Amino acid sequence: MKIAQIAPLAESCPPRLYGGTERIVSYLTEELVRQGHEVALFASGDSRTSAELVKCSDIALRLNPAVRDHVPYHVAMLDRVRALADRFDVLHFHIDMLHFPLIRDFADRTVTTLHGRLDLPDLKPFYAAFPDIPLVSISEDQRKPMPPVNWVGTVHHGLPRDLLPFKARPEGGYLAFLGRISPEKGPDLAIEIAARTGLPLKMAAKVDKVDEAYWREKIEPMVAATPNVSYIGEIGDAEKAEFLGNAAALLFPIDWPEPFGLVMIEAMACGTPVIAMRRGSVPEVIEHGVSGFIVNSLDEAVAAVGRLGDIHRSAVRAAFERRFTVERMAEDYVKIYRSLPGVGTHPPRLYIAGGEAGRQAFA
């Protein structure tokens, strides 16, 4: 199949540091190429891919200090997508909603994966206005707040098997927190768990501008006041294997409807069990007593730390290989692509932006 993957431009594919959506787009793109599909990736110019790269910004927008508004770059990218739409059997969008009005005439050969939370009140009237656009959820729980829409599948995320090696015997003996410093991610609860269990806690996390006050006023003082807690900042893929692989457990004490939680399966790939609050997708991802513990309170989380000896790290890795590989993710998406009513039934309609300029090569 000829497939277009349309990624957000905030981060490169794959991202250098934090960036869950762009990371998944990269894994999916590379696996589709490996399986023999012709793939074009619409992404930032510093992306690395074996697909045909359509450069839609010079570098990832988050890394460009001259960029203050991401919307103009995405709108320009979407005009280019429409100009080249006739080249593809399927167009797969990962950019939330900006493209919906532009794809109505070929929506039946598109799919849009929704990567974020869907419980915000402003989203309901928007999705109610576009009930025909084919949508994919990344967990069943993610769907709960939505009005009736055209769900065509749920596809859990997947990782390359060799991305994060299995670590049978962790060398660190610490608890790990990986992600963002924000109230919904529960870094305060992670610190409390560490304080009550006495185990070291290493926090590898980014602080977005919107959360700087939360970090400065709440989390940073808690870190300073808790001797067994250390904050090591944002890390990239190169450090992630060692950080997660040497941890006794990953703490995932979220307090929001997490759509998926990529870090959970990253830990599982290393054989590291996950202690997670029962929120959002957690019950779909973690098998209680097999790949970790699902808890309902701080007390239960503290007790779960004491039960980590009941979890076999080989079983955690086996659960990852059984359920969360990139091969499975790509196969699930290809099944959805082939099921779309516009795939293979009629030639796609042509739209050319800027006359002949729209026909030029991708790069």
TrEMBL record:
An MF annotation (GO) of this entry: glycosyltransferase activity
Q: For the Glycosyl transferase family domain, which residue ranges apply?
A: 172-298
Q: Which residues form the Glycosyltransferase subfamily 4-like N-terminal domain?
A: 18-119
Q: Does the keyword Transferase apply?
A: yes
**Stored Gene3D superfamilies:** Glycogen Phosphorylase B
PANTHER family for this protein: SULFOQUINOVOSYL TRANSFERASE SQD2
Protein name per UniProt: Glycosyltransferase involved in cell wall biosynthesis
Protein's organism: Chelatococcus composti
